[in-house]
Each structure stands twice: as structure tokens, then as C-alpha cells.
Amino acid sequence: MTTGFVVVGVAAYYLRRERATVEARKMLSMTLWLLTFLVPLQVAIGDLHGLNTFHYQPAKLAAMEGHWETRSGAPFVIVGWPDQEAEVTRWAIEVPYLGSLILTHTLDGTVRGLKEWPREDRPPPAIVFWSFRVMVGIGMLMMLVVVLANWLRWNNRLYDTVWFLRVCEACLPLGFVAVIAGWITTEVGRQPWVIYGLMRTKDAVTPSLAGSDVLVSLIIYMIVYLVVYPVTLYYMIGLVRAGPEIEEEPDRPIEGLQRPLPARAAAGAAGRPGTPIIAEPRP
Amino acid sequence: MMPLDFVPLWTLILGFGVFMYVLMDGFDLGVGILFRRAPNDAARDIMMNSVAPIWDGNETWLVLGGVALLAAFPLAFAIILPAVYFPILIMLMALIFRGIAFELRFKASPQSKHRWDAAFHYGSLVATLAQGFLLGAFVQGFRVDGRFFAGGSFDWLTPFSVLTAISLVLGYALLGATWLIMKTEGVLQDWARAQARWLMGVVLVCVGIVSVWTPFLEPQIWARWFSWPNIALLSPVPIISIWLALWVWRSIDRRAEFLPFLGTIALFTMGYLGLVISLWPNIVPHSVSLWDAAAAPRSQAFLLVGTLFLLPVIVGYTAWSYWVFRGKVRAGAGYH
Known about the structure:
The complex is a heterodimer of chains A (283) and B (336). With 283 residues, chain A is mainly alpha-helical. In chain A, a hairpin with a 4-residue loop joins strand 2 and strand 3. In chain A, helix 2 crosses helix 3 and helix 3 crosses helix 7. The longest helix of chain A is centred in the N-terminal third of the chain and has 36 residues. Chain A is flat and about 65 Å long. The C terminus of chain A is likely disordered. Chain B has 336 residues and is an all-alpha fold. In chain B, the strands form two sheets. Chain B has a two-stranded antiparallel sheet. In chain B, helix 7 packs antiparallel against helix 8, helix 8 packs antiparallel against helix 11 and helix 11 runs antiparallel to helix 12. The radius of gyration of chain B is 20 Å and the shape is globular. The chains are: A mainly alpha (283), B mainly alpha (336).
């Protein structure tokens, strides 16, 4: 899905500028078909994963939902601020019974709250609560994009609806954000356990490793990531800006992709995108 | 009935995985070490293309070795990994820079290409140095208290490990040079022959010093090699090694294409054999044996099922990719 939204975003970028339109239409069309299957599938898998967490890591789930009290017919908290000290979720906007419906698939199912566990056995609720909402929110947004795409396709307006293409471009990085938010949810939500219920994370630290060792290695990781990701991003943006080359198939296909970026090799002139030509919306 | 002992089989799998890694990533790291010395830029393109389709496959053996150690010999993993925390961290970071150089060098502009040359060269060099330090620290053994590593995070830095680090860089460079003799032609091949010739000399000297030094590290190693009748039984190991070195030299002078690489592999095999003879039956040298470090027999059996299916697949696709990319590498033909 992450890759799919990148491809869709790049295709929309080309279509809005009327560049490589044949390729861009194919990119947009094929990938939106793929996403039409993948996005609903992800929602279904997400539900199953939630039920699994509800069963095996109930404290994580209570933090995700912002539930403090164990109760049946639990509401679903749309937004709010889980306050660790006061043990309440402040400014909560709730939908009655929806929490139980999602987690137990019945209206009056019992959902356990964070107060079931001693304070030292709870994950930090605010991080888990919000990273989970970022992930789910993006999932819902993706669902909306897929629905809109299919409605536009039905009306033969998929390739020239400018506002939709703009939405597609804006959605390009969302998959990455959702993946990282989900990762934060699951890893922060499992705290303070590294082996759930058996071994605490602080007891799993290598005895010989000093705090300074950990700090130094963390800094090394950060430096490497801060070099590798921007540089790779720079080349990927360059590849997108240069666009697909329209030419005959090379004699030996393995040679095909092995050349410098045309935009850079030709020092600008040839491959650089011109003034954007924005397609007019249909009347 | 006695429960089945899976330790010998797991030792074989782990030993095979590590050895395959040393040989295969060895020559492509060696190509990286020689990279900046290459006669010209066209030669560098060919050098990189000679390993581009296979280098990442070669590194799967590193993953296999690491996971086999974790799963089958968890106690050894728990002691060794903390002891060589920094060499492993630095090795992995260097491999990242080397790895992205393969992808980005061909997409870079002519002005920035040299940066990726540097990333490839220094990535290969630093990763190899880190592996050499790891090897030296491993042979020397670690301070162990019960089931934990009891030393400091920089215990791995010793005169002996400095020697093994330098030796491994030269050894990998020799593997890389003989690989290039096999895979290239013309000016580049002549250059690779010249490199291989002097590298063979210094590698022989380094291996000699390491071999003489090692028995002095531990009385146990001394006894293994120099007690009777071991001294007679094991004397073929150094003799064959010296003979192999001479054979590699001769094959280079006779302008053989494939034999120098084969001879160097045989030489590495002898070195590996020497290491096994010195350290057997310990997996954490001088303190923990293979059997003491082994996971429960049922865990080893469970893991064996998957591994025995997976190993033929890895061997199969490795062989296949070498077959597909067999023969000489010529200018302009890469896999990208």
C-alpha cells in the first residue's frame, strides 16, 4: 500500500503536468485497481490483528483505546487526551457501544481498562493512543481515496479531475507515516515488557554494555540514517523529475537502466520539467 | 533411548554458513578494497559490475550464520555479541554505505560519482577491518563470568586483533584480485595479476605471523598443535598451505584464469581448518563448548526442519546466479 500510494502520487504529478501521460495513466489505473483490493483487505486484517492484541496484550489495547475502567458496552473514544496521572481520558469524544462492537463484535462485550493493571505494568497511554489514531486515520483516508477513485473511474473522469490528482499527490508519503505510527503503537504499547508478561525491557539490557556505549551506538545509527535517507530521497526525486525515457528498447535489456540521470548528465536543459501545465477541470 | 544429539549437525551448518560468507563476501569486499587503486574509471565500472549481481546474495550467508548462532547456540550468541558489539555495529554500518553505493553510483552525475567510489571503497575496507578485529578478539577469547560476557566494550582492541584485521584486509584483497583475474580481461586483468602477485606475498607473511602467534595465546592451543602425536598428524596443515601459496604464484605467472582464485579459496580453507583445530570443541574460545552453548535438543530439532528445507534453496539460487553471470564481464554490461 505504501508503494502503491507513491506510484499513484507520481502518476498524478505527471498527469497534472501533462508529461509521460501514457505511462502515467497506466501507473494510476493499475495501482488504483491494486489498492481497491489491498486497502479493504488491510482494514479486515487490522480488525483481526486488533482482536489478537485484545486477547494476548490487553494492556496495549486498553492504551490504544484510551480505556481506564473495565466495563461492558464500552464506547469508542474518537479523540481525547489520556492523562496518566489522573487516570482518565480528558476531552474525550466518544461513540457509545462502538468500542465493544469493534473488539468483541457484540454491543455489550466486556472491555478491560488500564486500571486493571498496576501503574508500573502499563504502557505510556498518550503515545500509544495517538500513534494508533494517526495510523487508523490514514487508513480511513486511504479508503476514501480508493472509493473516490472508483467513483471517478466509473464516470470516466479518473485522469483529468485536477482536485483528485492533487489529493493523490498529497497522499504520496502517507503510507510511510502510517507504517511508522503503527510500529510506534505496537512497540510502545508492549512496554514495559520485552517478553510479554515475563521479562521487563530494563531487565533485558546486556550487562556489559555501559550507558555511554548505547548512546554512542544510537548516535552512529542516527548519523547513518540521516545520511542514507536524504541522499536516497534526493536520487528518487531526481528520477521522478527526469521522468521515463521514451525510446526504443536497448539491444541488451540489462544495459537499459544503467545510465546517469538524464537531467543531471545533460546539465539541466533537456530533462528538467518545464512550467507546470495544469489541466483544466471539466466543466 | 538416548535423545538424538543435533549439535554436530548444527555445528556443521553454522561452520558452513560462516565459511561460505568469508569466501563469498570476502572476494566482493576484496574488490571494494582494491577499488580505489584501479587503473582507471572504466576499470572501476567493470570491477563493480563483476560483483553487482551477486554481492547481496553473498551476504545472505552472514544472516544465516548470525541466526544459526542465535537459535542453535544461544549462550554463545549472548556472550560473543556483547563482546564484539562495536566491531559488529561498525561492520553493519559500513556494509550499508557499500550496499547503497552499488545502487546509487550508476545514478550519480559524473561530478558526484567519486563520492560513491569512496563509499564503496571505505565501506568495504571498514567492514573488513571490523571483521578482522572480530576474528582476532574471538581467537583470543573473552572474559566470561558464568553465562555473561564480563569484559569491557573495547576488549576487542589488542595488538593481536590489529594484526588479524590487517591480515584479513590483505586476504580479502587477494581473493578480490584473483576473482578479477577470472572475471576480466586486458589491461584490468594484467593489473589484477600484478596486485595478486604482491598480495600473495604479504598474505603469506601475515598468515605466518598469526600462525606462530596463536599457540602462544593459550596453552591449550599450544598443546593441541605441538603435543605428540598431534605435531606429526597436523604438520600437513602448514606444509600444504605453503605449497598452495607457491601454486597460486605459479598459476598467476602462467597466466591461468581460474586457478589463482581456486588456489586462494583452498588457502582460505586451510586457514579456516587451522582455526577449527585450534579452538575445537569450544564455540566461545577457551570457555564454552559447543555442547554447553547449545539450545535444548527440541529447539534445535524444530529449527532444523526449516533450515534443512531452506539451505538447499539458498545453495540453489546462489549457484544459479553465479551460473547466469558466468564468464567475463565487459564494459557497458551490468545487471541494472
